[in-house]
């Protein structure tokens, strides 16, 4: 627990000690959870002490709002502030249950709305380096090349990718039959590089990986010939990101290729509704986040390319 300055016997600190005991003894909380709650609630108690507040009855909406303002001034992320308030609410709920408080005062303020992070994506040259990184002279390399090409070409979720069966592939028409969220079926389109990679894998890569077994699964584990797992796909992406020298390899994950697929389509002039259909989004608003990415990219290009971008646009005059 974070060491508190001042009197450790004050009511707030005593309440925290009881709450931590409850988390351990009754909730069987993990050491990580106990550490976080202890540290971050103790942080609030120390802040309150500096405000002259040592008794639970002195904690009110004003004190809490000051605390949230202080966290924001300390450049804490909105998600971090929201987590701390959630912990305090759990603390207050416990104190009400124990009869220490009559109402949960920590419910009197609202958490900040978490800001939406723009999805990250790979640049065109990074995507090219990643998908061409596998050594296609081996069955495993043929499989991995096909996986990367398909993920980038079709924008599949990793669960959709590992769920594919051989009979979901229509290489003649360059498409896949995919079952997405909620069991909804859709057609995913493939370009020629993905089609060629899939054909090579099905012809020369998959048969050795079967190890004499029978399986409908498209992508197989090299160890036992069973269906590949989502975890295995994540690991192979990290492996090839390192090999290709693509940014911070630990940040290259399966969904990054889905983000890249959508961003590159919109950059190329694709209609938002078409991208929505290809991604399998039920709501257009989910797809619209990618327009913010392309707009941000356009602003960045403008700032770098326009000789007077640092001066801003000229003001409009009455004469026009």
Element string (H = helix, E = strand): HHHHHHHEEEHHHHH
Fill in the CATH topology of the largest domain: hpI Integrase, Chain A
- Total of helices: 12
Q: Could you describe the largest sheet, including whether it forms a barrel?
A: 3 strands, antiparallel
Strand count: 3
Write the CATH architecture name of the largest domain.
Orthogonal Bundle
Characterize the overall form: elongated
Give the tally of structural domains. 2
What would you call the structural class?
mainly alpha
- Name the CATH superfamily classification of the largest domain: Intergrase catalytic core
Structure notes:
The chain contains twelve helices and three strands. It is mainly alpha-helical and 320 residues long. The protein starts with 10 loop residues before the first helix and ends in a 15-residue tail after the last helix. The longest helix has 22 residues. It has a three-stranded antiparallel sheet with strand order 1-2-3. A hairpin with a 5-residue loop joins strand 2 and strand 3. It has two domains: 98 residues, DNA polymerase, domain 1 (Orthogonal Bundle), CATH 1.10.150; 128 residues, Orthogonal Bundle (hpI Integrase, Chain A), CATH 1.10.443. Helix 6 crosses helix 10.
């Amino acid at each position: 627990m974070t060491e508190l300055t001042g009197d450790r016997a004050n009511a707030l600190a005593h309440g925290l000690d009881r709450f931590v005991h409850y988390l351990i003894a009754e909730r069987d909380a993990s050491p990580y959870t106990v550490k976080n709650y202890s540290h971050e609630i103790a942080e609030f108690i120390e802040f309150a002490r500096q405000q002259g507040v040592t008794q639970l009855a002195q904690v009110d909406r004003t004190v809490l709002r000051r605390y949230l303002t202080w966290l924001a001034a300390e450049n804490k992320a909105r998600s971090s502030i929201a987590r701390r308030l959630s912990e305090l609410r759990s603390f207050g709920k416990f104190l009400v249950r124990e009869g220490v408080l009559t109402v949960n005062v920590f419910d009197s303020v609202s958490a900040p709305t978490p800001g939406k992070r723009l999805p990250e994506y790979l640049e065109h040259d990074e995507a090219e380096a990643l998908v061409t990184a596998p050594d296609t002279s081996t069955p495993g390399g043929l499989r991995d090349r096909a996986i990367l090409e398909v993920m980038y070409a079709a924008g599949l979720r990793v669960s959709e990718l590992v769920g594919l069966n051989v009979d979901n592939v229509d290489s003649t028409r360059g498409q896949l039959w995919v079952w997405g969220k909620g069991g909804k079926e859709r057609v995913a389109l493939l370009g020629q590089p993905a089609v060629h990679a899939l054909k090579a894998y099905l012809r020369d890569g998959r048969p050795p990986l079967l190890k004499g077994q029978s399986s409908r699964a498209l992508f197989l584990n090299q160890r036992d010939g069973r269906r590949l797992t989502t975890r295995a796909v994540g690991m192979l992406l990290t492996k090839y990101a390192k090999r290709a020298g693509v940014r911070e390899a630990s940040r290259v994950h399966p969904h990054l290729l889905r983000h890249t697929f959508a961003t590159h389509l919109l950059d190329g002039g694709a209609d938002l509704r078409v991208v929505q259909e290809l991604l399998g989004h039920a709501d257009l608003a989910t797809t619209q986040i990618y327009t913010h990415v392309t707009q941000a990219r356009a602003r960045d290009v403008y700032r770098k390319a326009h000789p007077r971008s640092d001066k801003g646009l000229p003001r409009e005059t009455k004469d026009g």
